[in-house]
Amino acid sequence: AGMKFFLQYVGFFFAFFSAAFLIISTWTDCWMVNADDSLEVSTKCRGLWWECVTNVFDGIQTCDEYDSIYAEHSVKLVLTRAMMITADLLSGFGFLFLVLGLDCVKFLPDEPHIKLRICLVSGVMLLLAGLPGIMGSVWYAVDVYVERSSLLFHNVFLGIQYKFGWSCWLGMAGSLGCFLSGSLLTCCMYLFRETSSGRFHSAYPLRKGYSSAATVVTNVHFPSSQTATSKMYAVDTRV
């Protein structure tokens, strides 16, 4: 029981921070940051939804949102948006399911098997959330790196060059956390499911043995009473 609680709380810890990292990375503006910041008086960051410029001296930040979600954007941007939003939804619902499956939460307290199944469902959802999260963040980072390397290889200078920023790193960390928490909740909690079911099946023959013993005692009792009754009936008949 102690190991089961420990695994639940470790999974809860990683699921909470993983879902938070994925949501923060999706809705922050630093997926791409200018690589030549030492020569610039401002830091330029691009996110999935807007682009921000921060002055190095006074810290004033100005952001420009992209025209529309339906506007014509690059395939990299559209697919990364879709994958990160999918990861956000799956990780969020996985975390909520995990909260309901914790033993310390007073939800279905008399149904430990159902709570174990809820934890397993939560683990599967977190594993599924890590897949689009890691695909979106890694693909975005590799695409930025390849684009920058190709420009440097062809000696093309566009005035500013980008590298992937902390929002992209946060998406990778959240995705790896989802994989870790999902693995804990599916693989390890499944072992406790087998143990609990084994206890249930071992208790069933014991109860069956008790019932069969009671039947034997009952069967032994009835013939003696019937014998005494027959003797009394024989005495009455002789009289």
UniProtKB/TrEMBL annotation:
PROSITE patterns given in the database record: CLAUDIN
Pfam families named in the record: PMP22_Claudin
Gene Ontology CC terms: bicellular tight junction; plasma membrane
Signal peptide interval: none
Localisation per UniProt entry: Cell junction, Tight junction; Cell membrane
UniProt entry tagged with the keyword Cell membrane: yes
Main location: other
Lineage top rank: taxon: Eukaryota
Catalyzed reactions: Mg(2+)(in) = Mg(2+)(out); Ca(2+)(in) = Ca(2+)(out); Cs(+)(in) = Cs(+)(out); K(+)(in) = K(+)(out)
Keyword Protease attached: no
GO BP: monoatomic ion transport; paracellular transport
Protein keywords: Cell junction, Cell membrane, Ion transport, Magnesium, Membrane, Tight junction, Transmembrane, Transmembrane helix, Transport
Molecular function terms, GO-annotated: structural molecule activity
Transmembrane segments: 7-27, 120-142, 169-192
Topological type in the membrane: Multi-pass membrane protein
Function: Forms paracellular channels: coassembles with CLDN19 into tight junction strands with cation-selective channels through the strands, conveying epithelial permeability in a process known as paracellular tight junction permeability. Involved in the maintenance of ion gradients along the nephron. In the thick ascending limb (TAL) of Henle's loop, facilitates sodium paracellular permeability from the interstitial compartment to the lumen, contributing to the lumen-positive transepithelial potential that drives paracellular magnesium and calcium reabsorption. Claudins function as major constituents of the tight junction complexes that regulate the permeability of epithelia.
Family indicated by similarity: Belongs to the claudin family.
PANTHER family: CLAUDIN (PTHR12002)
Name recorded for this polypeptide: Claudin
